[in-house]
User: Fold ABC transporter ATP-binding protein from Gilvimarinus xylanilyticus.
Amino acid sequence: MNPIIEIRGIQKTYASGFQALQPIDLSIERGEIFALLGPNGAGKTTLISIICGIVNASGGQITADGLDIQRDYRQARQRIGLVPQELAVNIFETVWNTVKFSRGLFGCAPDDDYLEQLLRQLSLWDKKDNPIMALSGGMKRRVLIAKALAHEPRILFLDEPTAGVDVELRRDMWAMIRRLREDGVTIILTTHYIEEAEDMADRIGVINKGQLMLVKEKHALMRDLGRKSLTVHLNAPLAQLPQALDPAEVELSADGTELTYQYNTARENTGVAPLLQQLAEAGIGYSDLSTKQSSLEEIFVSLVEEKA
Assistant:
């Protein structure tokens, strides 16, 4: 596929000597939803700000839709919409004037029908004549989204878009994101709600301490780095773990009624069959088996802890 964003050797070091980003190489495919995960201070917002032309990189090159973001800044920026973490609008202006101004700012011809449709999709149409200062926090967040989409960008950055917003807005936002992706818009998001990335993203990138640790297709990531736990529900409680079982691999519950075995889903030999054979040889009966797959959040936490 032809990537819509190409990042080569991008790095950022501030005058104080702090290196916010180590050299990063990353390609983002056209039409995908890419989730960038990392703890606070990992470099997510710095990387997004560089791509959007808000912060200058210390080195490297970025192209957006084939345009160099430094040499062809104006044309490249027209391709990009950004929903920032913080409110960045004139709070005394009305909703309608804000989105109309934003569209004109990027050199787009007036299109009131498009802006009306956009505001209706975000449940803002009945607030169009209200000053932004009179809106609730959730409504202000909706205005930021409308502002970012006013010039019909082909690339949309969402920096913690659902932080501190209500459940209804989160639901509406993700429904809109799915529609945008169907229309060919490329979505790059950062989020602390990792279950959202697990639900929405095609690929996952994990960044920590300015270093891009990995980039992987979501299902492959969960398959390769995920773990499963097998719980064996015993017929009768055990006072202690049988000697035949390795305590490093098998854990006995406090009440002695369950055995839990952790295994890597990517391994060809999971060890489940030998475990059940050992139980049979020890005369330990069981009534049921259940498995649980590790979540993306558990994988993310383990990756960040390893790096720390």
